Fold Proliferating cell nuclear antigen-like.
Amino acid sequence: MFEARLVHGNLLKKVLDAIKDLLTEASWDCADSGIQLQAMDNSHVSLVSVNLRAEGFDKYRCDRNLIMGMDLTSMSKILKCSASDDIITMKAQDNADTVSFIFESPSQEKVSDYQMKLMNLDQDHLGIPETEYACVIKMPSGEFARICRDLSNFGENIVIACSKEGVKFSAAGDIGTANVKLAQTSSVDKEEDAVVIDMQEPVTLTFACRYLNMFTKATPLSPQVSLSMHPDVPLVVEYAIGEIGQIQYFLAPKIGDEDS
């Protein structure tokens, strides 16, 4: 038997919104430690990794490891049927071919129950190597989303350059060039407004705007985002999912671009 109950059910909707443009279907791996999802996007350019810890749920039970293959578009449609303050519970039997979503209003006066068919997906579990990154940038997630959106008007790629002066985002195209520089903040009232740069060595890498903009769909999950960069290694864009876990996006840099 598998059961996971989340009083802040809205978090689950936000997780789905953060991945459904990149993935049409994926497997949720349920174990007693929590729920994980790892999949390459539809064009096999980026990798998405979601981790929801068992202790982050209000009730969590997983008697034996269970892999639930889901059509994420369908899952998103079902989650849209829940109200923003609903308590969401996912339930499945050990060898079930369906999963149930139960939505309860906080007053318990309304309970909805949806069943969704599961799919058999043959997905390889991709090992993510532990990497020491040359540069880790923490910044407000809304700021990162705005920069990606604004710069994508100028070109298809964004160059992210990290140095001891700060971090610079640049794009160039037919209409001209755009540069946004952020220095490390010295003092802020709220931690989530800070720009913090932890740099071992300067790094400059180029990434496709299209994917960065898709990653920023996770902005509602967390006020802060962290970008980890290392020469010739995929960028890691990470958002916390409330108190319950995190979502990471991996994107390989463009090699030998005409700009370099």
